[in-house]
Amino acid sequence: MRASAKIFWILGVFFLIVAIAYGFVTGTYEPHGIETVGFPAILALSGLGFMIAMALTLAYRKNSINPSDDLDAEVSREAGVQGSFSPYSWAPLWASLGAALCFLGVAAGWWIFAFGIMFAIYGVLSWVLEFSIGQHAH
After folding, report:
1. From CA 38, how far away is CA 22, in angstroms rounded?
2. Orientation angle between helical segments 91-108 and 110-128, nearest 10 degrees
3. What is the 3-state secondary structure (H, E, C) of 63-129?
4. Into how many domains does the chain fold?
5. 7 — phi, psi (to 5°)?
6. Are residues 50 and 96 in the same domain?
7. Are residues 45 and 15 in the same domain?
8. Same domain, 38 and 6
9. Which domain holds residue 102?
10. Judgement on whether residues 105 and 48 belong to the same structural domain of the protein
11. Which of 85, 95, 98, 112 could cysteine-pair with 119, CB 3.0–4.6 Å?
12. What does the alpha-carbon distance between residue 138 and residue 129 come to, in Å, rounded to a whole number?
């Protein structure tokens, strides 16, 4: 985790420097001032890098050393449960279909967007409540 945190700190600083340079260059040479899409997007990318770096840094401080941080660690130390995933889940399909219909609806027609919202809500709710109801209920 420590190496990952360092990588994201470096990425956050890099994108902040790029955003400042991009804002300066577009503010100087564009007739309408600072470009209104790229500059905030690169700033948001920098903020995302800093948020991930902060989360990884806090997780590293809270938990013990990770096998990826130990140079002499064996591969088998990383073995074990990596997460809890439900088998045979249809929820990601419905959520992604809803997202695709929403994006299509913005371009083609708002009535398609409404169907996309319905599919997306069903998919996300069934994904979240997957372990509460049905075959894999706890």
Report:
1. 8
2. 160
3. CCCCHHHCCCCCHHHHCCCCCCCCCCCCHHHHHHHHHHHHHHHHHHCHHHHHHHHHHHHHHHHHHHC
4. 2
5. -60, -45
6. no
7. yes
8. yes
9. 91-128
10. no
11. 98
12. 11
Instruction: Looking at the structure, tell me whether residues 65 and 11 fall in a common domain.
Output: yes
**125/109 Cα distance (integer angstroms):** 25
Q: Does this model's pTM top 0.85?
A: no
Asked if the structure places residue 133 within a domain, the reply is no
Q: Is the domain of 52 the same as that of 8?
A: yes
Question: What is the per-residue pLDDT across 29-48, written as a single tens digit (0 to 9) for each?
Answer: 888 888 888 999 999 999 99
- The tokens describing 135, both together, are 């075959």
- CA distances to 12, 28, 122, 124 from 131, rounded to whole Å, are 36, 55, 15, 13
Q: Residue 102 corresponds to which tokens in the numbers above?
A: 């929403």
Q: Are residues 99 and 49 in the same domain?
A: no
Q: How far apart are CA 137 and CA 130, in angstroms?
A: 7
68 and 3 in contact (C-beta within 8 Å)? yes
Distance, CA of 2 to CA of 12 (rounded, Å): 15
Tokens representing residue 71 in the block? 């140079």
pLDDT in tens, 41-85: 999 999 999 999 999 999 888 876 777 777 787 878 777 776 666
Q: How far is CA 55 from the centre of its chain?
A: 13
